[in-house]
């Protein structure tokens, strides 16, 4: 049975530890949404463009944390990246992410 709650649930990963390990934060919202506010030092790759940037993301050789507005698109993005062999984690909504990892907002 398909479980939507599980699909969109934010992981219980230690995002602070991932950032300390030099993880990259990818904001998968639209460019317009990104311009309205985002995690400092995050990169904007809209969800619909993510698959076309897989080779670039792999070349970083770093873990990736995906964020969006609420956590739904970031979950989908993390899943896409995992299927491509990239260590990816769903960070959920970007405002909650910044609150939970204060240094991400600096």
Helix fraction? 25-40%
**Shape by Cα distribution:** globular
How many strand elements? 4
CATH superfamily: Rhodanese-like domain
Number of helices: 6
Instruction: From the alpha carbons, calculate the radius of gyration and give it in angstroms.
Output: 13 Å
The order of strands across the largest sheet is: 2-1-3-4
Separation of the first and last Cα atoms: 41 Å
CATH structural fold name: Oxidized Rhodanese, domain 1
Average pLDDT score:
88
Task: Quickly give the CATH architecture.
Answer: 3-Layer(aba) Sandwich
Structure keywords:
single chain, alpha/beta, 106 residues, disordered N terminus, Oxidized Rhodanese, domain 1, 16% strand
Describe this structure in words.
- With 106 residues, the protein is α/β, with parallel strands linked by helices.
- Strand 1 (24-27), helix 3 (31-35) and strand 2 (43-44) form a beta-alpha-beta unit.
- 39% of the residues lie in helices and 16% in strands.
- It is globular.
- It contains six helices and four strands.
- It starts with a helix and ends in a 6-residue tail after the last helix.
- Strands 2-1-3-4 form a four-stranded parallel sheet.
- It has a single domain (13-105), classed as Oxidized Rhodanese, domain 1.
Short description:
With 106 residues, this protein is α/β, with parallel strands linked by helices. 39% of the residues lie in helices and 16% in strands. The radius of gyration is 13 Å and the shape is globular.
What is the strand and helix layout of this fold?
Blueprint: H1 4-8, H2 15-20, E1 24-27, H3 31-35, E2 43-44, H4 54-59, E3 64-68, H5 72-83, E4 88-93, H6 94-100
Parallel strand pairs: 1-2, 1-3, 3-4
